[in-house]
Amino acid sequence: MMTHIFFASHDTRLFKSTRPLLPFFLYLTASAQLFATTLKFSPERTAFYRDESPTLNVMVDGDLPEQGILEIKLGDRQIHRGTALPGKNAIPVPAHLFRSGNHELTARLLDAEGKELTSQSLKIQLASRPSGDALQNWLWCSGVWEHKKNTDFFKMHGFDFVGGPVLPYSTAENPDRSPEALGKAFRGVQETMNGLLADGLLVAAIPNAGLWYREFTLFPPEGEDVKYANASRNGEEYYNPFNPTVAQKQNEANRHFLEALKDFPNFTIAWTDMEHQDNLLKPNRNKEGREKMAKALGFTEEEVGPPDFVAEKVISDQDRKYRLMKYIFQGGNGVHAALQRMVDMVKKYRPDVLTMTDPYR
User: Torsions phi, psi of 354, nearest 5?
Assistant: First the structure.
């Protein structure tokens, strides 16, 4: 006889939504001859607010003992005891009855006489949700450095938010982009989010903003015209945000990122440091950029001509140089298109999340 049990958890009351959450999986294997136990977690949530209503789905697969019993305890308190059913056993977890902190969840498979066939434990964390009535204080923050140092600094200075995960990237010359490597990278995102939720801090996470080469290292765009043309400086650091392949790769990267973040209620802000636009003070001269410039202005950069003065040191509203500069700052360098894609992907997964960037300087 072989029996497999795994746990999946979801929440039925997150932001008044019925969207399922899958924080963790736990596998148990029982054998009539030799009891072998294995533990496997999903790359998702193991931390919850106490006002959430998580449901523990216990999946039983294999040959069950006759009149087998499934028992679940959180700490010393039994939260479920009943007939072990093949397939899914949905077990509500009364998180509000337990204090904030670390807790041990224990599952036991028993035979009809109450003899334990196998058991396994899993540590979860519960925390109080930050007050919704408080004035939230956010500090310009980029990413997570040493975890405890980070959270202690922000708490000590009265901030509710902490710099959360940055979209995973690599500094290696030839990074590993295999599904296994990507899976590990994005599980790291979820591990960070679990820890920050347990610390009681809201999170500002940083997606792919569509320009900087570092943000594409695990999802590199390849092909013609993908590099930025006509940057003011450091042009080798940027991709062309008007290029369809670049757009596709930006969306792919952010889709992976949002899949990892979507079920965490402490994910509150999607923020990006768009200082890179300081290096893009000229119109984009890639194929798509030049086409957009000609369509929007009726001329290209080379056709600006002399100033159109209407008085001494006063130019006309129709002055081509003036119109060109407005066009650049209003999106002719591609920054707006890249940021809009980031916003669209965030809102697709989490309409409640605030999206923002630092202002144009």
Answer: -80, 130
